[in-house]
């Protein structure tokens, strides 16, 4: 019997959403009150206890995966540190001409430990998330070959957030190996870094050097942090409840019954899903970062207004920033700096020039990144296609860059002009929507059918009350979503121009500050999607 089948999910799995009543009216206030009451030296331990309690509530006994992951990386980190210490001691007593060989020997030891540790961490993740997908595809191949063999398709309970805390664990070990941080001999400090409850479900994917020290310092809760944190949570609440959840009936209906709709409706659903995904995920990040701010913790931002991007490459520097940075630092750079890749680049530079030469090794590294990115999001061919789609777009952008510059120069196109920038933003947005269409599709084949319908059958029947009702929404829903998107757009434009809204608001008279805060609460209460007949929507990225 698989190990994971022995454990049951948590009884309070509704707390997976940071916008649930159980979390906002129960867990979070009690944690804040308890954190404020306990003595200064106990705050960090209280926060660790609450983090494990939260994970227990949402995953039950699957919390053992988090504990084992923390224990393993703790001791692997100490193992790496001891090898480094032994190396440094031996170097003190080694002749100069022998130091290089000694360093090489110890580097090989560290690499073996790091590889073993990474295999252990990712092995559990791969086994739980991808064994079923792999088995199903093997059975499909065997059936196609008419072989009388079929493997049992396993089913596992997968801990919420396992992808996120596994990537944090591996980044910690890589950073110890590289010497950018020292191995932590305090299991509780490392445990708090791994389990901090606001980030355990959807990230952001933090580095040890970014948050571990802040968490362990365990500052008291200040009035400024409390109010600023609540503001950020409420802003995320508005994105999630007023926009993302309100659009969900339309998206579910069209994507599950795509053959019943023409291309225009499918295109509208694809755009709505892209909006929903952004509002859901960025709204959750607002809640996570806002909650961390209440406790005096500054977490890395995960979004920087991605829909102002002028290329797909720029989009992915602004969307899910911590995931992209993880792939860059721990997959792209190691692959491209490997000795065979360096030799390839050197040879290619001589034959095809300084621009195209490095693109060969870069393409290999980029392929690895986007294959992993697709698989990270889920075990399905549509996720793999999603990764390959963005790989192809980014690679083509790199290849075409000199040609685009030549054409715009010859045609005297002002690339800095607003209209040209708008064209780039719209083009990038369309490409993103197509990618998200495949991302959301039930299967890869469904994604292609929907895309073909958008291209060959792009028209609307009358977008009337009957059609909207069939999709589970009405004109009122679309109006509320539109108004909210305009509010978010206005705030995003100001932020893009360097105007920090919350900091500016904090300098205003107290009456104005509280009027804005109560206005936001009232807006959510009036226009949020909840109440009788409302089915709460789980955070989308909690599934990845």
Lay out the secondary structure.
Elements: H1 21-37, H2 43-59, H3 63-92, H4 96-144, H5 162-178, H6 187-195, H7 208-217, H8 223-256, H9 263-294, H10 312-318, H11 321-336, H12 339-377, H13 381-410, H14 418-440, H15 444-456, H16 465-470, H17 475-496, H18 501-506, H19 510-527
Helix pairs in contact: 1-2, 2-6, 3-4, 3-5, 3-6, 4-5, 6-7, 8-9, 8-17, 8-19, 9-14, 9-15, 11-12, 12-13, 13-14, 14-15
Number of strands: 0
Shape: globular
Order of helices and strands: HHHHHHHHHHHHHHHHHHH
What structural class is derived from the secondary structure elements?
Answer: mainly alpha
Q: What count of domains describes the coordinates?
A: 2
Distance between the termini: 25 Å
**Main sheet characteristics:** none
| Integer average pLDDT | 89
Computed CA radius of gyration, to the nearest angstrom: 25 Å
Strand content: under 5%
- What is the count of DSSP helices, taking H or I runs of 4+ residues? 19
Describe it.
The structure is a single chain. With 544 residues, the chain is mainly α. It has 19 helices and no strands. The chain has helices at residues 21-37, 43-59, 63-92, 96-144, 162-178, 187-195, 208-217, 223-256, 263-294, 312-318, 321-336, 339-377, 381-410, 418-440, 444-456, 465-470, 475-496, 501-506, 510-527. Helix 3 (63-92) runs parallel beside helix 5 and helix 8 (223-256) packs across helix 17 (475-496). The protein starts with 20 loop residues before the first helix and ends in a 17-residue tail after the last helix.
């Amino acid at each position: 019997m698989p190990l994971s089948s022995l454990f049951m999910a948590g009884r309070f799995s509704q707390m997976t959403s940071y916008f649930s009543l159980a979390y906002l009216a129960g867990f979070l206030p009690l944690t804040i009150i308890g954190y404020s009451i306990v003595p200064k030296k106990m705050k960090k331990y209280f926060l660790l206890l609450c983090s494990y309690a939260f994970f227990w509530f949402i995953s039950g006994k699957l919390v053992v995966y988090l504990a084992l992951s923390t224990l393993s990386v703790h001791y692997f980190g100490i193992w790496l540190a001891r090898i480094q210490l032994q190396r440094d001691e031996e170097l003190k007593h080694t002749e100069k001409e022998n130091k290089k060989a000694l360093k090489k020997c110890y580097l090989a030891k560290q690499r073996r430990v790091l590889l073993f540790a990474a295999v252990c961490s990712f092995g559990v993740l791969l086994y739980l998330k991808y064994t079923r997908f792999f088995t199903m595809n093997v059975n499909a191949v065997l059936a196609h070959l008419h072989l009388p063999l079929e493997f049992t398709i396993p089913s596992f309970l997968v801990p919420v957030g396992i992808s996120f805390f596994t990537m944090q664990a591996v980044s910690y070990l890589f950073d110890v190996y590289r010497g950018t941080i020292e191995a932590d001999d305090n299991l509780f400090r490392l445990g708090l870094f791994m389990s901090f409850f606001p980030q355990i479900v959807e990230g952001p994917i933090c580095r040890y050097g970014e948050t571990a020290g802040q968490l362990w310092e365990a500052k008291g809760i200040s009035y400024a942090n409390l109010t600023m944190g609540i503001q950020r949570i409420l802003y995320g609440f508005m994105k999630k409840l007023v926009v993302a959840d309100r659009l969900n009936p339309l998206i579910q209906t069209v994507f599950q019954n795509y053959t019943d709709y023409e291309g225009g409706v499918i295109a509208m659903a694809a755009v709505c899903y892209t909006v929903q995904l952004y509002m859901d995920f960025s709204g959750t990040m607002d809640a996570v970062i806002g909650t961390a701010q209440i406790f005096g913790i500054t977490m890395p931002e995960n979004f920087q207004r991605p829909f102002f991007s002028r290329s797909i490459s720029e989009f992915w520097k602004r969307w899910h920033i911590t995931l992209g940075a993880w792939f860059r630092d721990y997959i792209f750079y190691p692959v491209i700096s490997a000795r065979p890749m360096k030799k390839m680049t050197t040879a290619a530079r001589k034959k095809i020039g300084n621009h195209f030469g490095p693109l060969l090794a870069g393409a290999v590294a980029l392929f690895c990144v986007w294959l992993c990115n697709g698989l990270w999001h889920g075990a399905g061919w549509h996720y793999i296609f999603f990764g390959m789609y963005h790989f192809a777009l980014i690679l083509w952008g790199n290849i075409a860059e000199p040609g685009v510059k030549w054409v715009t120069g010859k045609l005297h196109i002002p690339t800095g002009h607003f209209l040209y920038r708008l064209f780039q933003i719209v083009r990038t947005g369309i490409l993103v929507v197509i990618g998200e269409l495949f991302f959301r599709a039930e299967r890869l084949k469904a994604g292609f059918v929907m895309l073909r319908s958008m291209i060959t059958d792009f028209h609307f029947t009358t977008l009337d009350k009957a059609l909207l009702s069939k999709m589970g929404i009405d004109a009122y829903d679309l109006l509320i979503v539109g108004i909210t998107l305009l509010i978010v757009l206005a705030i995003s434009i100001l932020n893009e121009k360097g105007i920090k809204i919350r900091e500016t608001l904090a300098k205003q008279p107290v009456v104005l500050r509280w009027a804005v805060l109560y206005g936001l609460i009232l807006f959510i209460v009036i226009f949020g999607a909840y109440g009788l007949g409302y089915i709460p929507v789980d955070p989308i990225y909690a599934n990845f």
